[in-house]
Amino acid sequence: MPPTGESQLQLTDIGQPNDQTSEIEWGDPKKLRVAKSTVLAVCAGVVVLLVVVIIAVYFAHPDYGKPEYIQVTSSPGQSPYVMVDRSDLSMAVHNFTITSIIMKCTVYYTRVKITLTTVGSTAVPTDVRLPTSLTPIRYDVRLRPDIYSNQPDDFSFTGSITMKFQVVESTHVITLHYRKLEIDGNQISVQNGLSEITVTGVSTDESREFYLIHLSEALTPGTECTVSMKHFEGPLEPDLTGIYYSSYLASDNTTHYLVTSHLQPTDARKVFPCLDEPQLKAIFGFTIERKSSYQSMSNTRIKDTLSLGDDWYSDAYEDTPVMSSYILALVVSDFECSTADNTSVTPPQTTQPTSLSLILSASHVAVPDFAAGAMENWGLIIYRETALLFDPLTASAANKQRVAVVVTHELAHMWFGNLVTPSWWDDIWLNEGFASYMEYTGLSDMYPEWEMENQFVVNSMQYVFALDGLASSHPIYQTVNHPSEISQIFDSITYYKGSCVIRMMKFFLGEETFRKGISKYLSDKSYQAAHHDELFDALAEQAKLEGKDIDVRGIMATWIRQMGYPVVNFTYDSATGDVKVTQEHFLLDRDQEMTTTSEFDYRWDVPVTYATDENGLVGDPEVSWLHHEEDQVTLSIGESVDWFVGNVRQRGYYRVNYDPESWQRLIDQLNTNHSAIHVQNRAQIIDDSFNLGRSGYVDQMLALNATLYMQDEEEYIPWLAAEYTFTYISRMLALTDKIDHFKEYVQRQVSPIYTTLAANEEDNHLKQLLRRAVVRLACGYGLQSCVNASVQSYAVWMENPLNNTVNQNLRSETYCRAVASGGLKEWQFAREQYSIANSGAEKDALAGAMGCSQNTGALNAFLQMAIEEEEIRRGDFRSVLRAVARNPLGRHLAWNFYKYNYNTIFERFGESLFTMSSMVAEITESFSEEYELYDLEAFSEATTNKGSAEFAFQQAIEKTRINIEWRKQHEENLAKWLDIHSSLSG
Ligand SMILES: [Zn+2]
To answer: Is 741 annotated as a binding residue?
Structure first.
């Protein structure tokens, strides 16, 4: 699944410094009509559709490109809906070629900030794996979710199940997973072969989430055994896990409820008793009971619907392929469906809150409340609304890219995860790393003009570098046992570092080798589970066939079995033309002692590449290896080069440091003709120099010198990298008297590009992203023309609320700046518009803006609204907290509010993926004072139950320490540097 999303995912853009913003009016703003009575009118955009269709076509066998749609009108009284024919999902999966996947597919995942517990935390048992005596063959499950009373307190579900197992070892006890289920132990029967076995009793092991059925005699190995449980029941809550209820407000102002599901990683057991481990795959036959005004959806197609009397109906689904329990799914709702074929899109009914896009082999469903960005259930992909629904009239280029990225990510999972599944959760990076990488490669192919490969280095690699430079990071491959540990590894390391090392592998193996090796791996392991060594061996074998002897296992072990990454030092001797290359572990706090040891002693097998002014812009660079046991390698690059850059296009997962002379030559080149250096390497130089400076590897002012050329930079990626740098500094200085000087410097740097863009209405996708980033900087750092434009544009909207003429690409920035510059009237207007906004993206922009207020009363009211949940949905709680925390005025309000309401927050979000850990990281990201550290440590210590945030707390504490140290080391020098460079602005 993708993390909640983008960094804005609610998870909305985690990771992107998009807090400070405002906007300006460029070009003809599109008009949006906000109809107060319309609840939610969202269109699945043509773009999304196109992405899906193209990917699916590439993925699948030839017939798959022309899906056939079948109209299914089920039981009387039910609204007709259309379902895609995915009659041959398995065949399609079987016939795809890896080439197409590699070439065409990409997925994005949200920057999830989840943390991992390296060491088993408190008292959770580690021996939580099921006994190996039984393997599942099939499950027949019948469920009846009941939400028809319209009284959420009464909502619940009941069910029955028949399971068939292969008996592998003799046993007297059948051990199943379960959680929060009440099972009627008197209605359990067991059959072994043809004989009935007496059940002598049942027992439970709550800490391991086991339900044990004790038998009068042992089951015989080699036979099959059938277990029937006639009745179990469980609660239906709005907890975003297992099956849960959600709701929306219909156009007549009534609340409608629905049931949806999210079973990854360990919540299938919360829906029915089962063997809930990813490698224990089986066939599922599902039957869902519902009332006539509702319809059900699941992974496969309905094969038959029966009336049960009393207005109840049962929908029986076709058998699923052999698959893991965590990708089972269901939705019971009164949604209307929109359908699509290769050429047309039918927008959903505007009176519905949510639409369903049914595309190709899978149904794509957007639901109002969802923990992640989306979930890749085989055949029924479920999304949060902002990750799927897209209104071309109001959405920004960033929204559009986000949707394309998430859809691509989920489709990639059909192979990476659903077809071939990790043998255990410790290898979940095989799912999420591949899906996160395919986001970029797939969209690169479909939309070359989006330059996704360039975006990768900033959005994924530089983003995760920041986390993985902490001593409290963790390896990609991480031992996990208990569900509370499993949840923690759905984090940036798994998603982003996973995708980075996969990309690195592609480059050192060569694309052809990589593609063929993966293809073989997927086809050999179809419908099975795999360990990462099986992937590495398939790639090494393919390389060998092509005459290349590459120890893929050995190389990759250094990248996935230890945390962190190296800084690779390039020392040039112009007299000999040689470069000496060495490595050391990069740490944001360079003096920190590592308390966790590594079998490789924090050294890596590094694929070393370089480019010079003589060969810099062409071809694939040759790879030289610096192995973990070697002290150094020497490269001969020649005596006559003017400059050179290491780690070409940042394909290797490492930072680069140079001798001072070589740094100076690079900076001189940026200042004279920056375009001679590849755009990815320009972004790299900005990011590496800043972070090397932060940690004392080089002079911090060197990094600021590397941004002096930005006045001439017109490309998106370097600006994005610079924005991260500027954001860090501004957070550190936010509460000091130096902030104004720094703002002047950024204004001076951004002013030329701002003026150019404001005068030019050219609007390709990348330009729109650039414009948004530039406006974030210009307005966020107080450039007067930008602030004025935002205030004015917002005022026009306030005059005529039914006609929003604010530029759709700049709404977050505009709203924020106008609310920050305005008073309560502006804030109140944002609040009103939030309550009637009919798209997730618009709501996100308005919520972000309410957090920009310079009125403490308004910020407090906003936080209160979020906890009360009357005006603000539970799913938006995190973005409210983040918006307030990013506002220097709200930083302590948000933290105190969080502490005060911790128990409520934990109760609401403790079990959902992503949320707890991301919240901690976001609220504390600006902490840089001793008293903040003290407070954070004290709270962490006093809080015994942190759920999946255990690791996030450790990381937040480490980051705060580093921030305090940074200010001690650099604040005064920075002030002197700013005296010189900001005054030049005149
Ligand atoms: Zn995913």
So the answer is: no
